[in-house]
Design goal:
Number of strands: 7
Strand content: 15-25%
Length: about 170
């Protein structure tokens, strides 16, 4: 697994919010199996940022840029930058809709957010994959990468391009 972060580019800067790229093998014994690239937002849980608020903040930030987290948006950005080989290696994770668990259902999203702030109880996010990491909370899309056709330099290039793509989100 490789993780990379950029400070979330909001004004004023929130020193606890990050854009993140998470790239992981899904099978140690079958490295040729597609890996998963997760584009998202991670918010740290600190004294001034309690658990429920960190989760709600991650939700708010991720949903503000949800279209940027889609597989097709990353592919389009890669193609725009002349990296067709990287774009061709990507596809939405099975059982997702363009890398998202489902399309945005406003009622489900508002219910999830209210539940987090009300009870703090974590349930699956209705649109994004979530990681409750103890000291932070992450929401991300799910994109498969055919690593067989890429060398290590291309994989590093993909990670950097994914971070640039997040940082260039038109909604930030």
């Amino acid at each position: 697994m490789v993780l990379a972060w950029l400070l979330f580019p909001a004004e004023p800067r929130d020193q606890h919010a990050w854009l993140c790229v998470d790239f992981r093998s899904m099978s140690r014994d079958r490295p040729e199996k597609p890996w998963v690239l997760r584009l998202g937002v991670e918010v740290e849980i600190k004294d001034k940022n309690p658990v429920a608020q960190a989760k709600a903040t991650a939700h708010d930030l991720a949903m503000s840029m949800v279209d940027t987290l889609r597989c097709s948006a990353l592919q389009q950005a890669l193609r725009h930058d002349g990296q067709e080989d990287l774009a061709a290696a990507l596809r939405p994770r099975h059982r997702t809709q363009d890398g998202l668990r489902s399309t945005s259902d406003e009622l489900a999203l508002s219910t999830w957010r209210a539940s987090i702030l009300g009870t703090g109880k974590i349930t699956k996010h209705p649109v994004l994959a979530n990681d409750n990491l103890g000291d932070s909370f992450r929401l991300a899309s799910l994109i498969e990468v055919n690593v067989i056709d890429l060398d290590r330099h291309q994989l590093v290039g993909l990670l950097l391009a994914a971070l640039r793509h997040l940082d260039r989100s038109p909604n930030l």
